[in-house]
């Protein structure tokens, strides 16, 4: 039995066609149900649907053998207990620093609102900047407008969300895409099965 963890939303939408090309199909009835454990066309493969930040946690603990996770989420998780084996090159975006303008970054201690605590601390530490990081779970764009922070660190795709809130992307931190991850113990115990899936997915990228 193989369990694959996927996250709701754009990663799920963009991963399903890849899995289908590799021979794994989930019926629209299963997808349309409110079930969190989905059956596939193969008796020995199940798919579980999770919040994005929970995918590496389930894979780390072996509850799922394989997962598809954004690099943003993996950078925050740290990668313990799992291998990142394939860049699926989907759900691409950039992790960026954004503010109203460049002058907002000229503070001796920069106040930054983000949900990407580890990536943010790591980036500003590497620049030798002193920062105060404020953890938010969403609507980061609001923070500079209401004076909660000088800038934000968030994912940027088209830039429309920033623009709509009077913010500009100023510094690039990381290019993000979804990665195929594998539980390190499963990679040993189910080596052939997992490698077969990786090869099939890679062939169809
Ligand atoms: P955009 O307005 O196109 O720049 O999209 C920015 C919004 O979409 C932000 O709220 C991001 O958190 C979210 N977003 C963009 N790309 C991704 C992605 N690949 N994965 C998850 N969230 C994303």
In summary, what is this structure?
The chain has 205 residues and is of the alpha/beta class.
Helix and strand arrangement:
Blueprint lengths: L1 E6 L2 H12 L6 H5 L4 E3 L5 E6 L4 H6 L5 E5 H7 L4 E6 L5 E7 L9 E6 L2 H10 L3 E6 L6 H5 L4 E6 L3 H5 L3 E9 L1 E6 H6 L1 H13 L2
Parallel strand pairs: 1-3, 1-4, 7-8, 7-9
Antiparallel strand pairs: 2-3, 4-11, 5-11, 6-9, 6-10
The structure holds adenosine monophosphate.
Instruction: Kindly provide the radius of gyration, computed on alpha-carbon positions and rounded to a whole number of angstroms.
Output: 19 Å
Silhouette: elongated
Q: Using the coordinates shown, work out and report the CATH topology of the largest domain.
A: D-Maltodextrin-Binding Protein, domain 2
CATH superfamily of the largest domain: Periplasmic binding protein-like II
How helix-rich are the residues, as a percent range?
A: 25-40%
Query: How confident is the prediction overall: mean pLDDT?
Result: 97
- Give a quick account of the main beta sheet: strands, pairing sense, barrel closure: 6 strands, mixed
Number of strands: 11
> From the 3D coordinates, which CATH architecture of the largest domain would you assign?
3-Layer(aba) Sandwich
Strand coverage percent: 25-35%
| Distinct small molecules bound, one entry per kind | adenosine monophosphate
Count up the domains.
2
Given helix and strand content, the structural type is: alpha/beta
Give the ordered list of helices and strands: EHHEEHEHEEEHEHEHEEHH
Per DSSP, the total helix count is 9
